[in-house]
Please model this.
Amino acid sequence: QVQLVESGGGLVHPGGSLSLSCAASGFLFSSNAMGWYRQAPGKQRELIAGITSGGTTNYADSVKGRFTISRDDAKNTVYLQMNSLKPDDTAVYYCKVLSPVNRRAYNYWGQGTQVTVSS
Model:
């Protein structure tokens, strides 16, 4: 059974940092590209960071230079380090399988983790 369990969200002041984790199970994690999406109130869900099975990373312009995605295949976990947070970063954050090879994993969405940036 595919599972993606996000954690690490919370309330942080502008300029602060948070580290998100996503524990994966039920599929061959190491062979799949992974990503982080976010959805702010009233907005569409957007892909903000991705990492291939080989470790190549890509970022949306809105987070480039502030966020870092990484993975630990031994722990089946993908991370998102978020620095210099802004109120516009407030959203529910989701991790996602980006490789369409395993359809069940590719179509799965976890419950997400809320990040609120506010003074």
Summary: Residues 40 and 91 are 4 Å apart (CA to CA). The mean pLDDT is 96. The beta strands are 3-7, 10-12, 18-25, 34-39, 46-51, 57-59, 67-72, 77-82, 91-97, 113-117. The radius of gyration is 13 Å.
